[in-house]
């Protein structure tokens, strides 16, 4: 026991000695510079797990553990931004975390406040070098002083370059998804009529008349083709409103039965929506809404807190807990590579991250050479010339390896 | 990449809650780590040069290009070389690991073979501290001609192993939804498979098979069964985002008709709606067909991914909040290529891994 402690102290002293430190730093720079040459994930998310366990196992205070975790974050952010990652999203605080001891919550909040207000003191430096800081989550759950610090930091960095740091502050993914649904519903519940005040070249009753005539005649295919999702066969759901009254919790049993209204009403909405697209929204219609049928996956994605960022390429969670814990559920369930590492967050460094990045580069390069292969998914796409060099270099490398 | 001495200064500063150093001190501390302003392609510096006289800016530009062409060239060449070298070394390591894991895998396959005997499988899970109540498995449809047949056989094997291990709720996710279109055939194949494990029908577990928006199949095919029944849920990509979109459409329509206010939409409401379609099948229309159905727990406890690395591939997002994930090919950060085949030892490894995991809510 004592021997191992001496050994670790010796190791620490050795690593901290100036020449070794310089060599290690140069090696890191070199590796990061090398990583830049290949494909790089555009958006990486981290779950910073293990601060408390690190503190417990090293016999230090929990708050100290969180401080060390912050250092690890700074370290890894440097690696990410230098190697070309555009957006980094971190899980700083879950809504569930409010259930922890008041002392720890206060300490974490305090830490966030100090860091953010320090950031605000370096306004011009941040302007020149800094990334955009955005805070995602339920800001209304924060105390006013923390909220003020958050707002100041976000405002100050809002004009910065193309690098983004998303801090998920009091956040859970279910809350985010629910919020996105709520906002979408709100959007679609706002009458369209408010925006097109003076221009109504078409009479609405005339349109309705036309639609009625068309419905009585042949099936109006052109109207359907305009709406995004297939509402074909909606005439078969005329009796849906009756069914719905009886079994309100079975509304989506047949996949396309959301039209509680009758066919005609639905068509009317479609027609008006089409009109609205052409910039001719009717004015005097009270209940003119966008058709809910135009809601798509993209609509919901655009209402998520991460809107406007590239798709999540990689999610890293430390400390060998193999759950998402309500983080980025919507963003990571399609093409994201999820990596669980058996290392506590304060110890996390380039050495743990490097194999992950190399594996990702290897897979992306392979899938580019052979697009039909399994596991192919769209990563970033830098200039084709660079990519060709990369893949040829890799191919040569593999030939040598074989 | 900070030196130890400076790190100590920063730590002392953190301990004093940021009151020890002034803003100026901190800027001095980090200045050496910032890149040279001239290296950055900044709109501001460009704008300032444009403001000054044109000859001056040209001179500056010349200076800039003259100053570093060789250095940048050498630097980029070194980086290219390092990139190639790292990937060669990495490739060798990956191949070695692959070979090693392939050997280990074969040994496991021989040592742990189920021999289609429920007792052996039960013995394999006996020592485990916990078993998932609801196990979910992600499979991929291959591209060959007989892919669907292979997939159905894999599903049948997995159902048999789960039944033997004592897991009563199983869900299988396959992206395209090909399985959903042939539920009766699948039921037939699984029953045949179960017969080859269990023998006579009275010892077979009762199998219930359903998919969201589909009626339950095989609700009471074998009422005299002595083994606990098993429920199998089939999922596909449309049960993920598409279902969320459908829910939003319905809610939007209700809101438009004044039946609901947007403030009523809470995580609890969404959870209730989303959970329901994956937890209970549709009841058969006629009263006489109605049989006792065990309701599936909406959130799976363990998600097994048979693939080279962990990618959810469109798995329903809402339900996996606290689900443990285990990828059969994931022991080396998913960089090795093995683990696609559905094999018994992969299944067992997932269960063992789950039993050893430490469950903590709220991180």
TrEMBL record, chain A:
Key word tRNA processing present: no
GO CC terms in record: dehydrodolichyl diphosphate synthase complex; endoplasmic reticulum; lipid droplet; membrane
Region (Disordered): 216-289, 368-402
Domain of life according to the entry: Eukaryota
UniProt cross-references to Pfam families, sorted A to Z: Prenyltransf
Classification via CDD domains: Cis_IPPS
Gene Ontology process terms (BP): polyprenol biosynthetic process
Secretion signal span: none
Keywords from the UniProt entry: Transferase
Entry similarity comment: Belongs to the UPP synthase family.
Name recorded for this polypeptide: Alkyl transferase
The organism's taxonomic lineage, starting at the top: Eukaryota, Fungi, Dikarya, Ascomycota, Pezizomycotina
Automatic annotation (TrEMBL), chain B:
Ranges annotated as biased composition (Basic and acidic residues): 1-29
Transmembrane segments: none
Keyword Lyase assigned: no
Record-linked Gene3D superfamilies: Decaprenyl diphosphate synthase-like
Renumbered residue ranges of the record's region Disordered: 1-69
Cofactor(s) required, per the database record: Mg(2+)
Gene Ontology CC: one annotated term: dehydrodolichyl diphosphate synthase complex
The EC number(s) this enzyme carries: 2.5.1.87
Catalytic activity: n isopentenyl diphosphate + (2E,6E)-farnesyl diphosphate = a di-trans,poly-cis-polyprenyl diphosphate + n diphosphate
Compositional bias of kind Basic residues: 56-69
Broad class of the protein's primary localization: endoplasmic reticulum
GO molecular function: ditrans,polycis-polyprenyl diphosphate synthase [(2E,6E)-farnesyl diphosphate specific] activity
Keywords linked to the UniProt accession: Endoplasmic reticulum, Magnesium, Membrane, Transferase, Transmembrane, Transmembrane helix
InterPro entries per record: Nus1/NgBR (IPR038887), UPP_synth-like_sf (IPR036424)
UniProt similarity note: Belongs to the UPP synthase family.
Name of the protein in question: ditrans,polycis-polyprenyl diphosphate synthase [(2E,6E)-farnesyldiphosphate specific]
Native organism: Penicillium angulare
Source species taxonomy: Eukaryota, Fungi, Dikarya, Ascomycota, Pezizomycotina
